[in-house]
TrEMBL record:
Domain ABC transporter: 357-597
Pfam families in UniProt: ABC_tran, BPD_transp_2
Keyword hit for Cytoplasm: no
GO molecular function, one term: ATP binding
Transmembrane region(s): 21-40, 46-65, 77-95, 101-123, 130-153, 173-192, 222-242, 294-316
Protein name: ATP-binding cassette domain-containing protein
Main localisation: membrane
Subcellular localization, as worded in the UniProt entry: Cell membrane
Keyword line: ATP-binding, Cell membrane, Membrane, Nucleotide-binding, Transmembrane, Transmembrane helix, Transport
Gene3D superfamilies: P-loop containing nucleotide triphosphate hydrolases (3.40.50.300)
């Protein structure tokens, strides 16, 4: 059966329902924004205009932190960049329609450029989440220092005021600020409810597994940071144009921290929660901070601690449980049943005459400790090559060095004739490597169907503002799902699966990437005898029927003997022996290794 290249229609039931919900919500909000100025006093309108711009900024914090898991303190810096772009151009260069539009474009471009730089510094392959938070923490501090150092040009610590702007009526600014908030929130909701939104949640839950599915995690984070920076700069520009005053505090660390508080109190990972939380807290603060200037800060801090400890999901999810009965939110509506389609894979990697996998003088050192020392192996197509050895022999380290170019200390790894260099896991996956882990490595809150869609991201992509409910899988992956019963549990969250089903799902996800070389690290660990037998049948079929080259790490020597074509024995990081199943099983040298006797290995 030929590959079915058709895609699910953008107007699928899931997408239509999400868009309809967002359209209704935006329409209701627009009516409120349009009529509210005629019911409010000037002071309240003034406060709400400011709150609308800050709420748009808080929405970006929620997309980064709540959905993607990037704890950022730096969104205030982009707000400040937008505000100062407006003030500096109007003060030092000129004002008018051309200058106003030009300064707005400058604000967006400057924010995008800074966001790219911050993303490049914070999200390189291997960077820890803590490092990214530290980089974003430094951003507003550096920006404020630059403003201080700017002297008269930036107004230093006094800021800039009374620069030319459009002195429109409060109602007009109310509509502008409210319209901006509605527009960016609607786009944000469409984004997080789309295929791409599913990808953001996957990155938050298991960044490592995403990388080993071929998903460019660092690039996605950088692009997301750039988009969030542009939205934040737009909000800051509007705020400066309305207030006619800018100060270093607009881009400072304090505002960045307050945005995190607003997001946590409103409900992290809900999008609408941080928006409503920001508006509510900012308006309340404006009324109470005058009479309770110090006590109000204490109240806010205590509320933040209480919510984090007792209600880590924030306040909005609690209210949402009641509202959801009356009006289904997009998140609830979007998790429809996934439809599977199958196709017969045609692996382009198999067209090369080179060995699917070859290592030459592979080394891995940790200081003076040699974990791998001169490993040279070669796998063949349609072959199941087992790698055995006692604990500490370097088996899992070998898998890491093959699947991640940055892991090895020396030597070369060739996948389908191409040297992987220092490539990240996602680039190695693109060459034809698929890897499962010693411990199941999945996405706990995503369903089986959603996990399978993620596995197809490198090949099928992901829409920014629509959501598919259909996924095409190669027949080997479908076979795994049918054998484990997962084809009838596509709507089940992975945390509710049995251990055997989790193992089966992980293997199906790896096969969905259409690898030519399959790296399996103890795939039968924790399985029953019946489950091990089923997995063994699947693996032999993958090698002999579908032509995959499989490298298997396994401690169950009976299992290895039943399914392997060749066996490689590692001992103390060196290649001890390589041969057929009969040769290795009958070897006195191998028996000595497993009995714990000292063995000399060739260097």
């Amino acid at each position: 059966m030929a590959r079915d290249t058709s895609e699910a229609a953008p107007g699928s039931s899931v997408t239509r329902r999400v868009r309809r919900t967002v359209l209704i919500g935006a329409a209701v909000a627009a009516v409120v924004v349009a009529t509210a100025p005629f019911q409010l006093d000037i002071y309240t309108k003034n406060i709400l205009i400011r709150a609308f711009f800050l709420a748009a900024l808080a929405m970006t914090v929620d997309v980064l932190w709540g959905y993607t898991g990037i704890l950022t303190f730096g969104q205030s810096a982009f707000f400040g960049i937008g505000a100062y772009a407006c003030a500096l151009v109007a003060t030092h260069y000129g004002f008018g329609p051309f200058w106003f539009a030009g300064s707005f474009l400058l604000a967006l471009l400057a924010a995008v450029a800074v966001a790219w730089l911050i993303g490049w510094l914070a999200f390189y392959h291997g960077a820890s989440p803590l490092y990214a938070s530290i980089v974003t923490l430094a951003l507003p501090i550096v920006l404020v220092q630059l403003i201080f150092a700017g002297g008269r040009f930036t107004g230093s610590s006094s800021g800039i005021s009374a620069f030319p702007t459009y002195y429109w009526a409060f109602e007009t600014w109310f509509w502008i600020a409210g319209g901006y908030l509605i527009a960016v929130t609607a786009l944000g909701y469409l984004l997080v409810s789309s295929d791409f939104g599913r990808l953001l949640v996957a990155i938050r839950e298991n960044e490592e597994r995403c990388a080993y599915l071929g998903i460019p995690v660092s690039r996605i984070k950088i692009l997301l940071m750039m988009a969030a920076g542009a939205i934040g700069a737009g909000a800051g520009f509007g705020y400066a144009a309305f207030t006619n005053v800018v100060a270093p505090e607009l881009g400072g660390f304090l505002l960045g921290t307050e945005l995190l508080i607003f997001t946590a109190l409103g409900g992290r990972g809900t999008l609408i929660g941080p928006v409503l939380g920001t508006i509510g807290i900012d308006v309340t603060a404006s009324y109470l901070s005058g009479s309770l200037p110090f006590l109000w800060k204490l109240i806010t801090g205590v509320a933040f601690v209480v919510v984090i400890v007792l209600l880590p999901q924030g306040l909005i999810p609690i209210l949402g449980k009641g509202l959801r009965r009356l009006w289904p939110f997009p998140r609830a509506a979007a998790r429809d049943a996934v439809v599977l389609r199958g196709f017969e894979p045609t692996t382009p990697h198999g067209e090369t005459r080179s060995a699917p996998l070859r290592t030459a003088d592979l080394l891995r050192h940790y200081g003076s400790l040699k974990v791998l020392d001169g490993i040279a192996i070669e796998s063949r197509g349609s072959e199941l090559l087992s790698i055995v050895g006692p604990n500490g022999a370097g088996k899992t380290t070998l898998m890491r060095c093959i699947s991640d170019g940055g892991e090895r200390s020396g030597g070369e790894v060739y996948v389908n004739g191409t040297e992987i260099g220092r490539g990240s896991p996602q680039s190695v996956v693109a060459l034809g490597i698929g890897r499962s882990f010693q411990n199941t490595n999945l996405f706990e809150t995503l369903t089986v169907g959603e996990c399978l869609m993620l596995a197809r991201w490198r090949i099928d992509g992901a829409s920014l503002f629509s959501r598919r409910n259909e996924v095409a899988l190669p027949t080997p992956a479908l076979g795994i799902l049918e054998a484990t019963g997962l084809d009838k549990a596509l709507g089940t969250e992975t945390r509710n699966l049995s251990h055997g089903q989790k193992r089966g799902l992980e293997l199906a996800m790896v096969l969905a990437t259409e690898p030519s070389v399959l790296l399996l690290d103890e795939p039968t660990a924790g399985l029953t005898k019946a489950e091990r037998t089923a997995i063994g049948s699947v693996l032999t079929s993958l090698a002999r029927v579908h032509g995959l080259s499989i490298l298997l790490i396994e401690h169950d020597l009976d299992f290895v003997r039943d399914i392997s074509d060749r066996i490689v024995v590692l001992h103390q990081g060196a290649l001890l022996m390589e041969g057929t199943v009969e040769e290795v099983i009958a070897s006195d040298l191998v028996k000595a290794v497993y009995s714990g006797q000292a063995v000399e290995t060739a260097s």
